[in-house]
């Protein structure tokens, strides 16, 4: 419908000059016909046409009077019932395009019962032919012409609209309906791979949109599958957690009895064993905390960092035969404002990954394999660096560094260690990042800021 309307509006611009030109040609035809008769009569000097012959001549030209002027002389060729008043007169030779358009619409709108006088030159001579006629036949011819132009324009606009509709339907509507149907089908069952849109390889906007929709559906399908795996894993872990907590409770009772055994070796290892079991019992109560809407708030306090890292090294229990050295380069008096258990988990997860990477390294690295932990305080921020000289992280693990189940650097890993570490560091308001270095290996840097000191606490400390 819009195409029909637009084409008809465009046809108006064509119709305006064309109807004016048609009117001018019509008047010129009448003048030429009358001029031919007038020239013949003018050649017969002193002879006046009979009444019947004048009527036939006027009827053939559709006029009421025909006059021929030459050299300031005028001769009435034929005339019947000449009206006393002339409503309009037109000089065909002096008519401009704008005046022709104005006269045409004047005839169309107000003509039909007027007497007009029309005159123009006879060929290339100096003679002028003059007609007196009614404009009813002229207006009738113009209306017939306008009607023909209207129906022709309407036919052209309908053909154009049909072609445009078929083209738009083929190029736009069908692809959009196809994408809409794909979205509807995909929303009904996102897990069905057959409902993913098969995108075309075009370069137009709709083809590109289809490709993006197809990629988004595949990505969403993959994400939903991972979410389902996580839900299944959560259910399985909750079941295992229930039984594991009972087993650890029994182990905790036995460990408490071992602490009372009077044996130097038992007394040496019993505290570490007790701390490990206590942490394991604590982990079982928080094993499902990852993925919750809000992480538990850390219970922060200033603590010595070196003993905490020493506990990590003891828990790792690195085999002396593995040629892996765990080096601690932290000052004894360095304190960090953090939750001791959460910070222990962060450092333990990263160090465990480093030790496993060194143990699984099959590149035949020569020399001592090293895991080094250093720390320093700059103002109110403590920076902890965990460095190893292992094979480094592969590209896939770097791209999904802190993503659970995707950021693992080894086969069979889950990537949960780094994901949990990041969550705990962020809960402290800190940052954790993989740092590029020139030598082989992996370097993680953790930065933990101190909590802001309330003004009243600061003033209280200042007084003392």
Detailed description of the structure:
This protein has helices at residues 2-43, 51-61, 97-110, 136-188, 205-258, 264-286, 305-316, 340-359, 395-399, 416-427, 455-463, and strands at residues 65-70, 73-79, 88-91, 115-121, 128-134, 301-304, 324-329, 335-338, 369-378, 381-388, 431-435, 442-449. Helix 1 (2-43) runs antiparallel to helix 2, helix 1 runs antiparallel to helix 4 (136-188) and helix 8 (340-359) packs antiparallel against helix 10. With 464 residues, it is of the alpha+beta class. The chain has eleven helices and twelve strands. A five-stranded mixed beta sheet has the order 2-1-5-4-3. It folds into three domains: 2-158, no CATH class; 195-256; 289-463, Histidine kinase-like ATPase, C-terminal domain (Heat Shock Protein 90, 2-Layer Sandwich), CATH 3.30.565. Helix content is 55%, strand content 16%. The longest helix has 54 residues, at 205-258.
TL;DR?
Helices cover about 55% and strands about 15% of the residues. It has eleven helices and twelve strands.
What is the CATH first-level class name of the largest domain? Alpha Beta
Q: What best-fitting shape do the alpha-carbon axes yield?
A: rod-shaped
Query: Largest beta sheet: what is the strand line-up?
Result: 2-1-5-4-3
- Total beta-strand segments: 12
Number of helices: 11
Determine the mean pLDDT.
Answer: 80
End-to-end distance, in Å? 88 Å
State the CATH architecture of the largest domain: 2-Layer Sandwich
The poorly predicted ranges are 290-294
Strand content: 15-25%
> Roughly what percent helix?
40-55%
Question: How many discrete domains?
Answer: 3
**Radius of gyration, rounded?**
51 Å
User: Which fold name corresponds to the CATH topology of the largest domain?
Assistant: Heat Shock Protein 90
Largest sheet: 5 strands, mixed
Q: So, the CATH homologous superfamily of the largest domain?
A: Histidine kinase-like ATPase, C-terminal domain
H/E topology pattern: HHEEEHEEHHHEHEEHEEHHEEH
